[in-house]
Every structure is written in structure tokens, then in C-alpha cells.
Amino acid sequence: MFEITKSDLAGRTGVLHTNHGSVQTPAYVPVIHPARQTIPSERIRKMGFEMVITNAYITRKRFGDEATRRGIHEIINFNGAVMTDSGGYQVLEYGDVEVLPPEMAAFERGIMTDFGIPLDKPTGFGMPKKTAAQYVRHTLEVSRQTLQAAEDNGQIWIGPIQGGEHFDLVSKSAKGLVDAGFTMMALGSPVEFMESYEYGLLARMIITAKRQIPHSIPLHLFGAGHPLTIPLAVALGCDTFDSASYILYAKNQRYMTGDGTRYLKDISVFPCGCEVCSRYTPAELRQLAETERTDELAVHNLHAIKLEVDMTRQAIHEGRLWEYVMKKSRAHPRLYEIIRIMTGNGDFLAEGTPRFKDRAAFLYDRADQFRPEVQRYHEMVRRFKSKKKTLVIMPETDSRPGYLSGRYAHLAKKFGDSAQICQYSPHLGLVPIEISDIYPAAHHETARNRFEPAEFVEFGTTWKKFFENNSFEEMYYDKKDRFLEYFAKGTRDIKKKNLNKK
Amino acid sequence: MFEITKSDLAGRTGVLHTNHGSVQTPAYVPVIHPARQTIPSERIRKMGFEMVITNAYITRKRFGDEATRRGIHEIINFNGAVMTDSGGYQVLEYGDVEVLPPEMAAFERGIMTDFGIPLDKPTGFGMPKKTAAQYVRHTLEVSRQTLQAAEDNGQIWIGPIQGGEHFDLVSKSAKGLVDAGFTMMALGSPVEFMESYEYGLLARMIITAKRQIPHSIPLHLFGAGHPLTIPLAVALGCDTFDSASYILYAKNQRYMTGDGTRYLKDISVFPCGCEVCSRYTPAELRQLAETERTDELAVHNLHAIKLEVDMTRQAIHEGRLWEYVMKKSRAHPRLYEIIRIMTGNGDFLAEGTPRFKDRAAFLYDRADQFRPEVQRYHEMVRRFKSKKKTLVIMPETDSRPGYLSGRYAHLAKKFGDSAQICQYSPHLGLVPIEISDIYPAAHHETARNRFEPAEFVEFGTTWKKFFENNSFEEMYYDKKDRFLEYFAKGTRDIKKKNLNKK
Known about the structure:
By secondary structure, the first copy, chain A, is an alpha/beta fold. In chain A, strand 1 (about 1-10) and strand 2 (about 10-20) form a beta hairpin. In chain A, helix 7 (about 130-150) packs parallel to helix 8 (about 165-180), helix 8 (about 165-180) packs parallel to helix 10 (about 200-210) and helix 20 (about 370-380) runs parallel beside helix 22. The termini of chain A are far apart. The interface between A and B is large, with 49 and 49 residues.
């Protein structure tokens, strides 16, 4: 049902196979109103969206049995995959709804949805833990029953993970749904996280859930459809995400960009090449009648979201998702805070990161010592054994692998077989010449900046391990190299000689 | 002739008024071949490019007197502003050309170009300094004569600055042309700077030239038309820039993106919403016949360049050009190196930066202590005088200006009139409560990260000055605040009291 084509960090590109065609992931899933949709769903399909989400609860209320006769695809006029939310949000907003979970499941089955969601009880944000725990238990129970009653007809049932800011509940909820046998999951992202720009909380919630979910199971994220959150959500392993933001923002005259949202009145030139932005200047769009202006803005917003998804997909394809997310995080100081979460969850991000990439890793600042490829190199060097008694350390050379450099040839000749020769890079740490051809040692680009040794704690750890694991009696290095000197001064019981003086 | 509408850093948005319509700047100026143009110039006009550049030398060779009869606008079929290069590049490539500077100037005048360039001798890159100095002298002499012979007919003559990597020659060349009376200038950007990704050299060369040129004079940058260089060039004060990159890259199957250039074969999904990328999938585009594919790629490349210019224009409009350039610099480690140049030329970047902005300044890392708005605040605090003997320092509050915060009200009540109360921020330094409403103290967003005090040298300087300028006898602060403690421990002759203990 879900086929992964490529992965990077915890993100992946893939294909979801459904009863109504396949869906390339990651995918944004626009919300379609079953009765009051202003942007025609055919137009949304033509823009390249292969899946939409609509509300089964409202559909049932509005269309009743007619919906079962005609099917949801005809009701909303969408030729592609349809996901139906079951009314859980209405539970959150208006308290209990007058339909029981098994009835709703039967209705979703009847309208031939491609992705059904059991009638869950969303925990939202700010709910006392005890109540949230009850909601999680209830949702889990309903979900189990729904799945047990499901027919083997190609419909995909999604397990709704709840828990909000109570991360232990999120974890329990995710694990329970996996155990119940769901082949796709969805995570509730409290609208409060987004409204208060708490991207750090959102990131930690996603990681908590993902740590309980096997790699092969696709994850949907509810209510996330802003260009700012998309690369982050994808990097952490979300495959699809829905929201009505495109139209809600448009109604407030808000224009989405990859750098955040702007009011239409504040735009002097459209920083976008989509059909809407090519047809109008900002002044012209402002002069349209309100309905038309809102629709055009909504179409632009859909394009802006799609562009962000496509840029993220291409970043996965190229193996530079880390770089893309780091760059993107500079759109807002709150988003920048997620760097701490990225650097602190290396093990989680490593799983989907390929061991070898065609493309050079671009290394900028201290955060990059924590990217999975670099961490892996450190781990390898921390296990490296040498029988030599003499250690020679030189900076990395422009020719790579290092053993192809003239500088290495010169030192190899000078020291013969008696010395262990290493190159070094602030990010990668020590690079024993024998393994200087392993990715990313042989294939990276580093900014030629002055790096502060104190910031490179991974270098320090590798350095310490390297000396512990081996029995060097003397080391040669350039004592004027202040980066090396910082680490060398803490290393005792070894004769230190100046490389340039020999 | 040049009207500046808004400015930020050394960049500005403006309008160039010409004999053939006005040109919104910053503007990319596509190169049009006078005889072998494959993308029709009307199509380029329709895409929104208001000015193109073509080669007067080739036009003269190919069309001779016909060009003078018909005019360059008809020859290249462009309804907008036209700039003509005079053959200087041909001088560089093929040695001397068989036309004298006055003849070329007369020809450019005759074909009714909007922007003429005297027949200069480009210095390129790697030329011995002595020869380069001769070239600069020759170009200056030719330019002076051309300008003196010019008619007052609305044509704009551009002074070509040369010097390459010899920055003192660049400076002399720019100054000479300003003194000669040019109202627009152009700077030769050695193709070698770009090919070897030496963005730092490019930035230093632009700054060197700009320091000699009055703010009111527009500056064109030759041969720069890549999405990676555009925000940087604009931020340093370039108003227009030309290149043939859109078609040259297309011929090599290279697809431009805001994150760099990709081979068409390496793209899985187009990270772009332009007309070309909406019409084809990458696989479909790859299957087109070569000529058609090259043309479509060239059109996409034009869109990608235009998008970058528009995003940069909008960033100036919003007053967040610093943030945009910093974010953009993460597209390549060599581009990231320009941060050193941005932080080291605060005085130069401050000139065009407004004192007050509507939008909050977003502060991320150590580099942001050097942005002009922040530097200005430091300068103000370094001149701040207080008659109080007691100093109270608290972290900045969420409510701003700080004097509106509950925390301030509490301390003001506790200490009464006897104390000078300050807030602090790692980036802004000390914020005396009396001036906590001045931009950007009242209007910024900072990532809630753990900042290393050693990185905040501007904080240290302001701290030192603040104590030198005033005669505090005691200071209250939270001694557990490790950021403050780092600076307080170096401050002697003052009683230090714990704020939380009082």
C-alpha cells in the first residue's frame, strides 16, 4: 500500500496506492468542504494534488443516504484519492456528536472513502492529563473496533494518534495503534502549537510518535499545511498533511510565501511565479471584488504550499534535506529553535539517511557536526585502530580523498610506514588517511571560515577516543594551528612536535 | 533619471527612466543576441523584463548602417529599454577589435540605445597589475571622451569600472568615472569569480567600487545573473545586472533554482511553479527534441532569475534584506563565506538601512549582532548617561517596550527612582528602560536558544562603555544567569548583588 522510493533523515518520498489512484508523497492534502467548496475540486486536481480530505460528519449530516448511493468522489467531484475525517474535530469543538463510532465507520465505508478515520476524540491542547488519558483510551478502543469491523476492500483505515502536549500519552497512543494493526497513522497537531509558533513542541511531538511507528507505516499530520512547517514535518517523517489554511488565510487577505505569510496589502511585487502571480500585479489583485480576490489568493496559496512540498521532495531526492531544513529554519526565530531538536535526535534522523550519497555534503556551522552522515563518520573513527607509534595530523586538502593529495604524498615519503597520517576537519574530526575515501570525508564542501574549537564538541570526543584506542608516543602537527592546538593542549603523555619544523 | 523608492542595507528598489519606458529596479537584464536570439524578445518582454542588453559590436558587424536606419529596438524587436555593450568583452576575448572608441560611441548613439557603454578594455581576472592599470587608464580616458562627445538626448552613458581582483584599481577606476560625470556606472565581474564560486571576492570588489560612488548613482553589474548571486549583489548596492546565463545554462541542460543549478537529469520533481514547470514533468521535458527542450529550459531559467529578483525586491520592501541574504547564503558553503564580509562592513551597509521599520527584526545567531539596526542601538547605548548609582539588570520581557512589562513595574516599585533599570538581550546588549521603545529594542524576535556569551563581542563592548560612562556603585542581577555572569565577572569596583535575593 505504501512504497518508499527514497529517504533522507526521517523523511521519505514514496507512493500511496489507493482504490482511486496513487499518491506521490510527501503530499499536501487540501481540505474540501463537502457542500460549500469555493475553489472547484477539479481545479485542485489539475494543479497536481492527487488526494484531498473532506469531512464525513458534515457529509452525512448534509447528504445522508444520498452520499452512500453516490459515493464521496462524486459528491465532492474529485477524481483521485479521498481521505475522510470522521468528525473528531467537531467533537473537540462542539462536544459530543450525535453519531456513534460504528455508525460513522459504516458511513465512511459506504461512501467508498479511500482513507477512513475512526471517530476519535482529539485531545487538542491544554487538556488536563487525566482527561487526555481517557480520550486516548477511548480513541484507541474505538479505533480497534473500527479496524476489526473493516472489510478487506482496499480502503485504508488510519489510526488517529492523540495526546497533545502530553508526550507520554502520544507515545502510548501511537504504540497502541501500531499493536492494533493499523497500516497508516495520523497525528493530531494542536492548532495552538501553530498559532503560537511553537515549532519546537510540534517537532518533539512528531518525534515521540514516530519513535513508536515502524518505518514502513505512512504517517499523516492533521492540520499542518503551512510552507514553514512542511519541510520540518517531512524531515521528521510525516508523509501527508492536510489543512484548510489555503482558503482560511485567503479569506483574511493573507498571502503565503516560503518565508511566512504576508497581508496582501504589504506586498509590492509578488515573490512567486504561479499562474495567479503571473496574471496580476499586487495592486491589480487588491482591486478585484472580494469573492474573486479570495479565490485567487486561495489558488496562489495552494501553489505556494505545493511548491514547498515539491522543493522538499527534490531535497530528499538530492539527499540534502538536512541542508534544506536548516536553511528554511531561518524564516522565523521560533522555527530556528528546531535546530536544537535536529541536533539532539541524531539517532532518530540517521535511520533513513543513506550511507552514501552522490552529492557533496555542504557544511556550514557547528550544527552540521550533528548531521547523520557526519555523526556516522565520527563513530567510525572512534573505533579506528592503528599500530603506529607516530601520529601526523594535517588539515584536509582540496584534493579528495586525502590520499590523492600532494601534501599527503610528501608526508608519506617523509615519515614512511612508521606514521599514522590523519587529516582533520572541524566538522568531521580526525580523518585517518586510510578511510579518507569514505563518505562524506571524500565528498563535502566546508565554508572557509574561522571555526571556534570550543563549539566542536564532537571533534573533542573523537580526538579523546582516538588517543585512548591507540598508543601513539609522538604526534606531529602545526603548532600554530589554533584549532588543533586547542585539542592538543589537553592531550598528555605524548611527545608533541611541530610539523613545519621537521 | 534614477529614482530610489526604498532602501535596505546598501540595496534599494527604484525606477530608471529611459527614452523607452521606465525600468523597476533591481532588475535582471537578459542578454539578447542581435542576430541569433532563440527566445523571442517579445516573450521576454511579456515575462516582465523591462530592459535587455545586446551587443553593439556584433550589431554593427552584422547590420552596419541598416542598424542606424532602423534603430536597435526594431533590430532586436524589443519594446522597452535597451542597453548596449560596446564590444569590450570581445576585446578581452579576441584582443583588439577593428573599431575605434569614438566610432563605437557614434554607432551606439545612432542606433538610439537607451544605455550606451564606451568601448572599454575589460581587465578580467589574473591580469598582471601593471597591465590592468594601463587598461583602467585607457578605459577611463575613452569613457571621458565618450561622455564629452555625448548629446543631451536622453541616452544614458554608463561608466565601466575595471580592475578585477586589483581592488585599489577598482577604487581608482570608480572614482575617476564619478569625477568624469557619469550618472550610471557598471562594474565588470570577472567570470572567474563566479566559476570558482569566489563570492567573497565578488562581494569585496562590489563594496570597493560602491564606496566611491554616490548613493544616487545606479550601478550595473556585468555578467551576474545567477539566483545565488542576485540577493548578495543587490544587498551590496547593484541595481541592474545582465547575463546570458539563462540560455548558456539551458544549452548544457542545466536548470536554475534558488538553491543552485541542477542538471535536468537529476530532477525528480520541479521545485518551481513557472509556466514551463507547470506544463511538463521532468521526465516529459527530458523527452522533448533538443532545440525545444533548450528553449523551454531557458524560459524556466528566466523565470527562476526573475523570481529571485522579485523575492529580493519584496525583501527590501519589507525591510528584511539582511535576513534574506543570510538565509540565502546557506545555498553553498562558498556563499556562506560572505557573512564575514557582511558583518565586517557595518558602516557601509548602514547607510541605506532605515532607522525605523514596521516589521520586527528577526535575530538568530551571532552574525545578527552586526546587522545595521542592532549596531545603531549599541552605538546609542554606548553614549547613554545615567545619574543613578544603582544599576538593575533584567532579561528582556515578552511585553515590549520593556517599560510596559509587569516585571519592570515590579522592579520600579521596589527600587523607586534610585535605580537605573536595564533589560538585556544577547544581540542588542543593554537596553536602558528609558530607550526600550526605540527600534529595534521594542520590535524584534529572538530565538530562545542558549547563547554563548563569548560570541557576543558587541555586548561586551557596550557593557564596558556603559560602566565607563556612568558611575554605578552597585548592581543587581540574577547571579545564576550565566550569560550576564560572564560579563559581570570582569567588572570590578562595583558591589554585585543578587536580584532574586532582594
